[in-house]
């Protein structure tokens, strides 16, 4: 390497950030007093060991977007970057091997809607990746909220039905996308947030509840009517119990029980008065006398 090249510091902290196949090469800026520093990025593949340039030659930014370049997602690729200032150049800083289908971070699917039935949940979600030319499958992990026993459904569709569920039961689930890779079976993405939904009531159970409510209503009405009737009789009993019984005074009772006492004679002697009246004669006067 020439003497001029060693006079310019090389970029530091060179990393590759890849999320849903949006690929960026980043590095820390080089600070010098002589003027603005520019950067150049090159790449090569494992199968073709020759460095080539991409759309990041003599740029002022400290990042390089190689998402829309000719670099394929299944290629094993290496990158290198250097700083440049006039005739001065730094040493190249090389990255580790990068393969997009293996190393990109796949985000979680977005839940769109949930249709609840008595024995199933129909999940509709949006894929995190669109217009890709490789296989993407979805792993749906679900469980009954009251337990920790999880089940998993693997599908290629974004419309998934969770079957054989219990009615009126709350189920939780998480969804993740998985990308097929040639180096390993799948690159599993991030799990979605946990979402919980309850199954509905079956028609048979609804009919049973309606019948039960009807019978309970009848029993309540009959109970209220009987209660009022019983309460009315109960009030009469309370009145009878609370009022003292009529009792003849003892001295009257002794007189009544005396066999020598004649009630009828006393009644006649004391209660019946003898009426007295004078004789009245009516004398008519003859006409002309």
| Helical segment count | 5
Tell me the structural class.
Answer: alpha+beta
* Element string (H = helix, E = strand): HEEEEEEEEHEEEEEEEEHHH
Global geometry: rod-shaped
Low-confidence stretches: 1-5, 263-274
Report how far apart the termini are.
191 Å
How would you describe the overall organization of this protein?
- With 289 residues, the chain is α+β, with helices and mostly antiparallel strands.
- It contains five helices and 16 strands.
- It has helices spanning 3-6, 100-103, 203-242, 250-256, 263-271, and strands at residues 12-19, 22-28, 38-45, 52-53, 63-65, 77-85, 88-89, 93-94, 110-116, 121-126, 136-144, 150-155, 159-162, 170-180, 186-188, 195-198.
- The strands form four sheets. Strands 3, 4, 6, 7 and 8 form a five-stranded antiparallel beta sheet that branches. Strands 11, 12, 14, 15 and 16 form a five-stranded antiparallel beta sheet that branches. Strands 1-2-5 form a three-stranded antiparallel beta sheet, with no helix packed on it.
């Amino acid at each position: 390497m020439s003497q001029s090249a060693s006079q310019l510091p090389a970029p530091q902290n060179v990393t590759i950030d890849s999320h849903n196949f949006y690929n960026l090469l980043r590095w820390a800026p080089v600070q010098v007093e002589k003027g603005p520093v520019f950067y150049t990025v090159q790449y090569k593949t494992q199968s073709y060991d020759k460095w080539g340039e991409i759309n990041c030659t003599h740029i002022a930014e400290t990042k390089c977007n190689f998402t829309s370049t000719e670099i394929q997602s299944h290629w094993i690729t290496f990158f290198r970057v250097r700083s440049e200032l006039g005739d001065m150049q730094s040493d190249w800083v090389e990255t580790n091997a990068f393969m997009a289908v293996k190393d990109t971070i796949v985000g979680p699917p977005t839940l769109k809607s949930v249709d609840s039935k008595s024995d199933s949940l129909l999940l509709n979600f949006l894929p995190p990746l669109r217009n890709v030319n490789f296989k993407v499958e979805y792993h749906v992990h679900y469980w009954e909220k009251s337990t920790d026993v999880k089940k998993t459904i693997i599908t290629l569709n974004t419309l998934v039905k969770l079957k054989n569920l219990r009615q009126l039961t709350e189920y939780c689930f998480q969804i993740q996308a998985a990308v097929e890779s040639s180096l390993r079976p799948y690159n599993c993405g991030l799990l979605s947030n946990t979402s919980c939904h309850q199954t509905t009531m079956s028609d048979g159970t609804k009919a049973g509840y309606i019948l039960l409510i009807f019978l309970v209503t009848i029993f309540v009405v009959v109970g209220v009517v009987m209660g009022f009737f019983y309460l009315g009789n109960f009030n009469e009993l309370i009145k009878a119990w609370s009022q003292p019984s009529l009792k003849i005074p003892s001295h009257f009772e002794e007189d009544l029980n005396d066999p020598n006492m004649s009630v009828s004679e006393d009644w006649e002697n004391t209660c019946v008065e003898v009426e007295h009246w004078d004789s009245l004669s009516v004398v008519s006067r003859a006409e002309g006398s």
